Amino acid sequence: MALYNGQSRLRDVIFSHPAVIPVINRLGVRLGVGDGTIADSCRRLGIDSSFFLAVVNTYINDDYFPEDGSSFGFRETVDYLMKTDNDYLRLQIPNIERHLDMLMTRSRGENNLYLLRGFFHELKRELESCIAADIENLFPVLLGEDRGEVSYSGLLEGARHEGVEEKIDDLLSFFVMHLKGEYEPNLCVAVVTAIFALRKDIRQNNRIRSRILLPQAERLFGNLSSNENSIRK
Amino acid sequence: MSGHVRIALLGLTPLETMGMREALRSTAAVETESFSDFASFTPLADRFDGYVAAAAVFVANLEFFMPRRQKTIIISAGRVMGEGSLSGDGGELAIMEETSRLVAELGSRDDAAGELSAREKEVIREVASGKTNKEIADGLCISVNTVITHRKNIASKLGIKSASGLSLYAMMNGLL
């Protein structure tokens, strides 16, 4: 898959990969992008184009690994991930929940939707707990705002939301493979589509955490002496 | 043939044959048949799902075994010499672990599409009761690697990996 560069047209990126729309929103770009290049749009909006390209290419292309994460700042990465967490909490999870509730209400007859809703709530609680850990531990430490000492390896271990990724795959399998009984089909499509969208976002953002955030963190804290296993803030 | 696997024991010593039968008995629903030479096995080869062969038999019949090497465990002087992948120190423990793993894989491969074997249902019940892989292995007298193989097979059939997902599946399907 071709990589995008500063001379690529932003509209081409969006037409080819519509799933990238929430990503560019988090980066500060709204729809109505016109015909300009990525470099033009970033310049106009005051966005670091190398960071924009690193995030968009990592999100779109599974094989892409940004070569030089040192050309943009830590704060941009953390800000992007904070907005991502916020999107999950404020938009995507409530959207799934709303559609799931409507699906339950409008589905007549016997089904196992109530069990699937219970599993969704478990997933929601786990995602909320990961986000709370991001907000209370990971981000303040990475931005140097916290005090005290924290285990560096433990911190980075919690930086990926792998348990959530596994559970969301399971939730999709329950809908796709194990849904039983009568249900309202259109609302079910809406629920499943919203879960697929959240799964893609979580999976791709976990790659952004692995491929951009963690290498940045390693570079930033790698200067600590080799016998020091904690971050001093 | 849910969970039922047929294994041919080829050119093993009487002691190796007895040990292998004992190991397989505690692993899963397995039928074994031993052959002292390859010629007597050839007409019946299609009946078997997997093979445990003496190294000499393996080497002398590469044309048969190479396409089936993922289903074959090779034994030499009481040690595992190879199969799909070598592991462990090759000693008796390795033989038992590799055999359990092979049987778990073969059992899963031969099940009807998506149908869980009796052993896989047992593993789901154990996972649903909150046990770790190690605790499940100890309880069922199998190795942790075999538990992991069962869990991979379950995930591939059901699309469910997490412990809480498997608990829900168990509840939905009356396995608890």
Question: What would your notes on this structure say?
Answer:
The complex is a heterodimer of chains A (233) and B (176). Chain A is mainly α and 233 residues long. Chain A has two domains: 10-69, no CATH class; 73-232. Chain A is 67% helix and 3% strand. Chain A has nine helices and two strands, in the order ααααααβαααβ. In chain A, helix 5 packs antiparallel against helix 6, helix 6 (113-142) runs antiparallel to helix 8 and helix 8 packs antiparallel against helix 9. Chain A is globular, with a radius of gyration of 20 Å. The model of chain A is unreliable at 224-233 (pLDDT under 50). Chain B has helices at residues 14-25, 38-41, 55-60, 62-65, 92-110, 118-128, 133-140, 144-158, 163-172, and strands at residues 5-10, 30-35, 50-54, 72-76, 79-82. Mean pLDDT of chain B is 81; it is low at 84-88. In chain B, strand 4 (72-76) and strand 5 (79-82) form a beta hairpin. Chain B has a five-stranded mixed β-sheet with strand order 2-1-3-4-5. Chain B folds into two domains: 1-92, 3-Layer(aba) Sandwich (Rossmann fold), CATH 3.40.50; 111-176, Arc Repressor Mutant, subunit A (Orthogonal Bundle). Chain B is an alpha/beta fold and 176 residues long. In chain B, 51% of the residues lie in helices and 15% in strands. Chain A binds chain B through residues 112, 115, 118-119, 122, 163, 166-167, 169-174, 176-178, 180, and chain B through 158-162, 164-165, 168-169, 171-172.
Lay out the secondary structure.
The complex is a heterodimer of chains A (233) and B (176).
Chain A: H1 10-16, H2 21-26, H3 38-45, H4 49-60, H5 74-106, H6 113-142, E1 149-151, H7 152-157, H8 162-178, H9 185-221, E2 230-232
Antiparallel strand pairs in A: 1-2
Chain B: E1 5-10, H1 14-25, E2 30-35, H2 38-41, E3 50-54, H3 55-60, H4 62-65, E4 72-76, E5 79-82, H5 92-110, H6 118-128, H7 133-140, H8 144-158, H9 163-172
Parallel strand pairs in B: 1-2, 1-3, 3-4
Antiparallel strand pairs in B: 4-5
Helix pairs in contact in B: 5-8, 6-8, 6-9, 7-8
